[in-house]
């Protein structure tokens, strides 16, 4: 293993000078710095993480705060986590995953120590109780999600309101006049989770703009719940021909339930969804969907955080536009 003394000997300088070049604690000449950099590259030297953190007063660790509350679809959350971890490693940072539902107390406990340099916060609520602390922390943060008042925060997310609108507009364009949203589990709406609320806003706005008859149905994440919702929809809206699904766990069970009740997809019922592309593509009836870009959101959240750590200005708000892909689950409405 190459040591700092080997780099110093190769570059013809003292070990302390190599240390200063790595930490930036003291100025050294540009010629000396370049000579040290050449030696580092040629010898393949990698500074020890603990020593590097001590020299820079940084831990080189990011906190990823994902409270695993009820109603959260864990497979999608883990896609975000993998993206954050993978991107952080390209910046030579590790990730501390915080999954307990501790709210402000959990954030303060981590922030009051030297455990992490910065935070990425997920499962954002419209009136999130963590906001006052995030606005006053002495270390940078990025939220994947938009609270009602994002002033003074750095937020990134899919434009879920536009995603809800895009799904409805596609159904309206195919001639569908009666539509329904099968949404997240009820507790997600009770918490006023921001992304779920935005989808409802977009769905309702587009349905009203297109003059459609519409309804909203929270759904527990189980096949039995999907069957119950399908039965209720057909009983209450017998003329239903278009459905938007924002609940990854029930997308396939819902299609199965509708077909067991006598509706062919897309012959009798068109379905659109907001979900990861790989899920939409893998179903027995591939689903027309707005992609949930978890990998891109996780990576871009880390990039924003790295810029903030380096003192570079970043936009307060980053909204990714929805991308809808047409698949086999949608078709023009049959003439009455």
List keywords for this structure.
12 strands; 6-stranded parallel beta sheet; alpha/beta; 45% helix; 16% strand; 336 residues
Topology:
Layout: H1 4-11, H2 15-23, H3 30-43, H4 49-56, E1 61-65, H5 74-90, E2 94-98, H6 103-111, E3 118-121, H7 131-136, E4 141-144, E5 155-158, H8 160-173, E6 178-183, H9 186-190, H10 194-209, E7 213-218, H11 223-236, E8 242-245, H12 251-260, E9 270-275, H13 277-282, E10 288-291, H14 294-309, E11 317-320, E12 324-325
Parallel strand pairs: 1-2, 1-3, 3-4, 4-5, 5-11, 6-7, 6-8, 8-9, 9-10
Antiparallel strand pairs: 10-12
Helix pairs in contact: 1-2, 1-3, 5-14, 8-10, 11-12
Short description, anyone?
By secondary structure, the chain is of the alpha/beta class. Helix content is 45%, strand content 16%. Strand 3 (118-121), helix 7 and strand 4 form a beta-alpha-beta unit.
Q: Biggest sheet, strands in spatial order?
A: 2-1-3-4-5-11
* Beta fraction: 15-25%
Q: What do the pLDDT scores average to?
A: 90
Shape designation: elongated
Terminal-residue CA separation? 77 Å
Total count of helical runs of at least 4 residues? 14
Going by helix content, strand content and strand pairing, the class is alpha/beta
Could you give the order of the helices and strands?
HHHHEHEHEHEEHEHHEHEHEHEHEE
- Cα-atom radius of gyration: 25 Å
Residue runs with pLDDT of under 50 for 5 or more positions: 50-56
Number of strands: 12
Summarize the biggest pleated sheet.
6 strands, parallel
Measured as a percent range, the helix fraction is 40-55%
